[in-house]
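Long-time lurker. I teach an intro course on protein structure, and each term I like to show students one example going from raw sequence to a predicted 3D structure in token notation. This year I'd like something fresh instead of my usual example. Would anyone be willing to generate the tokens for the chain below so I can use it in lecture? Attribution to the forum is fine with me.
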Amino acid sequence: MPVPSTPQTAGLQSQQRPLSSATGKATLDPIVKIEEVQELISGKSGKKYTLIDVREPAEVSDSGVIPTAHHIPVNTLLDALQLPASEFQAKYNFAKPTRDDHVVFYCRSGRRSALAYDIAKGLGYGGVRNYSGSWLEWEKCGGPVEKK
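-- Reply from a regular --
Happy to contribute to a lecture. Here you go:
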């Protein structure tokens, strides 16, 4: 079933897929809903994940971030994901995700996070997803915020 075309999913090239015939494992839905983000940051899910805010630095300093989020502006993401792990760690102060890690991108409205999803997928990152509601939904729902 294709991902519906909305402003939040306009950049997504992926589709929801059934079980992989090669592995028998379900592939990830590329879209993350607010409930899953809330579960991830609460630690209740027990899942290992990396949450990456791809907004501009001024947006992050003005409004803060979703708790546990790291920050890499979308315009630097392509270069960032191609850095060796040690350089990535030194520059961004968190471990570089592997190609199989569960990574969730968000931005203000979901457009830049869809682009970030496409960039990472293009580099072979299979566990990436897009929180399409992004900051606007998070803020509207009164989600917790950390100041950076």
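Some talking points for your students: The CA atoms of residues 19 and 26 lie 4 Å apart. Strands lie at 31-32, 50-53, 70-71, 103-106, 128-131.
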